[in-house]
Every structure is written in C-alpha cells, then in structure tokens.
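Student:
Attend to each token:
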Amino acid sequence: MRRNQFLRCASSSTHRLFLFSFILLSSIPGNISSREITLGSIEIFNSHEWWPSKPIVYFSCKGENKTFLPDVKTTNFLYSFKGQESWQPLTELPEKKCKRCGIYESDTFKSDDVFDEWEMCSDDFVEGNYIHFKEKEFNATFICSDCGGGSGSQNSTIVEDKGEPSKKKTIAIVVVVSVLASIVTVLAAVFVYKYWQRRRRERDQLRFLKLFEETDEIEDEIALGHVI
C-alpha cells in the first residue's frame, strides 16, 4: 500500500514539474512561438533590367537563404498565392523580434537590384495580414495566422520612392557617357581615315617622283648616245 502511495506521489510530482517547465518556457519570448510568413499576393511595377527580359524576383531576410518567386515573370500583373506552393513559407518570425527582409531582382552582370528592404515584425500583422507597398516598385501582401493579434483593418506600410531621382541621375550619366564614347569613337575613326589618306598621297607622290627621275635618266642616256 505504501508503494502505491509512493508511486501516486511520484507521478503527481512529475506532472507538476512538467507543467511548471512548460509554463516557464512559454513565458520566455521567442522560445516556443514561431510564426510562418507566407506570400499572399504580389505585383511588381518595375523591372531594373536595361533590356527586355523576364525579371527574376526573390525574397530574403538577412542571414537566410533566398526564396525565389518562380511565378512572378512580368510587371503590372497581380499574382495571388494559396500559401501551399513548394517555395512557401518565406520565413519565420520570432514573437518579440523583427527581421530585416526585402524583395530583390537577380542580376547577371552586376549586383542584385533592391525593390525594397524593411524591418518585418510580428506586430505589423493585423488579423494575420500585412501589406507592404513601395512606390513605383511593388505591392505585396504577407500572411501570418499566428502573428499580431490586433483587430481592425489590415496593417500596411507605404514607402515613398526616394531613390527615383538618384536612379534617374544614374541613367542620365550612363547616357551621357555613352554619347561621349560614341563621339570619341567617330572622331578617332575620322582621324585614322584622314591619316591613312595623307600617308597614301605621300607614297603616291614619292612613287611619281621616283618614276620621273628614272625617266630623266633614260632620256639623258639616250641624248648622250646620240652625241657619241
């Protein structure tokens, strides 16, 4: 009988210890709760390639792998997703910590172009939705059923495109440099052609003078033969 009482006490103590450990771990932010982020929809307004081609768009957070969006192939088209695609989820968010994330365009000949980078936080989501809009770049909706917890309308972030003047300035510089390079190339070609023409005239003149001298020598020899 004492053995049965001992076993019941031991079992009760084990349950209490397990419950206490669970409550303790749950009270530590970010230890258990991890929130999966999926892409609900996206529309890109601009491709950063200089020549017509299908953009290669991907999502990435700092220190994590790239998640390519294979369905996004053109601009000004709204792509919607179910969250069950093979490349989903995009990332996971801790409960009380943000991540530095962004949407990028892969580039072959230079560093990847940045649509936008921002701090993605669990509190940004309202009723599981978060909209991020970057002027002249893209509009995306992210879904996290376990994030936020607020009520009301969907939360959204609108970012003004402050980098557009700089981008236009860069394009203008490239155009000016290209025009100058073309002008220099044409001038160099004209100079080389004129130099070649001058050298050709000089060679023709030397050849003519040499021929004229040979003719004079022949005439002198003929005249001398007549005298003799």
Q: What stands out?
A: Residues 22-32 have pLDDT under 50 and may be disordered.
